[in-house]
Amino acid sequence: MSEEYKAKIFKSGNSLALRLPKALGFKEGAEMTLREDHGRFTFEPAQNERKIDVSKFAGKAPWLEPLSREDFDDSPRDWHLMGRDASGA
């Protein structure tokens, strides 16, 4: 038997967001795939794409050295405190 829930759309920055009930059990930050078919919307957890681990690449190029923070024009930000990710979304 399927359940029915109500969700509310609200403005988040320059975008719209859909607040989902906690009872659905999704975790914060979970990626979803949203589909629209003739005005009917469905969503489901996104398929996890395989990510490439680049953590050991630095050892392959010993002549590369990390940049110091002084080499950046912009100061670091705590994006998580601003409620946004690093892309500004």
Textual characterization of the structure:
The protein has 89 residues and is mostly beta strands. It has a domain at 8-45. It has no helices and four strands. The protein has strands at residues 8-12, 15-19, 32-37, 40-45. Strand 1 (8-12) and strand 2 (15-19) form a beta hairpin. The mean pLDDT is 78.
Structural class: mainly beta
Tally of DSSP β-strands: 4
Written as H for each helix and E for each strand, in order along the chain, the element string is EEEE
Q: Looking across the biggest beta sheet, what order are the strands in?
A: 1-2
Largest sheet: 2 strands, antiparallel
Alpha plus pi helix count = 0
- Relative helix content: under 10%
Q: β content, as a range?
A: 15-25%
Could you say which overall geometry the principal axes of the C-alpha atoms support?
A: elongated
Question: What would the average pLDDT be, to the nearest integer?
Answer: 78
N-to-C span = 36 Å
Protein name: AbrB/MazE/SpoVT family DNA-binding domain-containing protein
Organism: Sphingobium xenophagum
GO molecular function, one term: DNA binding
Keywords: DNA-binding
